[in-house]
Amino acid sequence: xxxxxxxxxxxxxxxxxxxxxxxxxxxxxxxxxxxxxxxxxxxxxxxxxxxxxxxxxxxxxxxxxxxxxxxxxxxxxxxxxxxxxxxxxxxxxxxxxxxxxxxxxxxxxxxxxxxxxxxxxxxxxxxxxxxxxxxxxxxxxxxxxxxxxxxxxxxxxxxxxxxxxxxxxxxxxxxxxxxxxxxxxxxxxxxxxxxxxxxxxxxxxxxxxxxxxxxxxxxxxxxxxxxxxxxxx
Length: 233
Hints:
The chain is mainly alpha-helical. 68% of the residues lie in helices and 3% in strands. It contains eleven helices and two strands, in the order H-H-H-E-E-H-H-H-H-H-H-H-H. It has helices at 17-29, 41-48, 52-65, 83-102, 110-128, 132-148, 153-165, 167-170, 177-194, 199-208, 211-232; strands spanning 68-71, 75-78. The protein starts with 16 loop residues before the first helix and ends with a helix.
């Protein structure tokens, strides 16, 4: 396991807990802190220019989201998921996604369509300037607004929990030009399907939408396993 580096430490002190959590999450999901990296409190304090109290608060929140693991005698590390864990997590997310999409009344109200069009414009604008944090936030806002239309806030909350859980698996593709282009096209098609009456087509598209990042993450795990076996032989 590698330790995080502090060479890029912030020079301005930041004591906004929400900001620290967001920055830690961003560094993890975009690969600046790789799976297995040790997250020592002193290094994080230096990296983010904040106090131990807020670092600990950020680690607790990150652990709750499933992107950090804290173990006795080991400390905090960026969580690594096995291929089987990835498949199991996505199985649940796919079931929740399909059910929520099927429950959205079609044709959808014009207000929902207008809201999604506005969010899609924000998403595209962030993509144009490669604002990774903005891409991530606007992408999630699009999906939360879409699934909120199912009318079941408990289902939406469960979906959000699994969206958070899969952040380290899917975020890399928000910075990948091919993955980003495909995501934008699928968002636009979702909006078009909301104007019609084919709930099954909408639900299938929503499930298909997450397959690119799932397959990419599983491929990366397989490559890393091959490299480890080669190093041991």
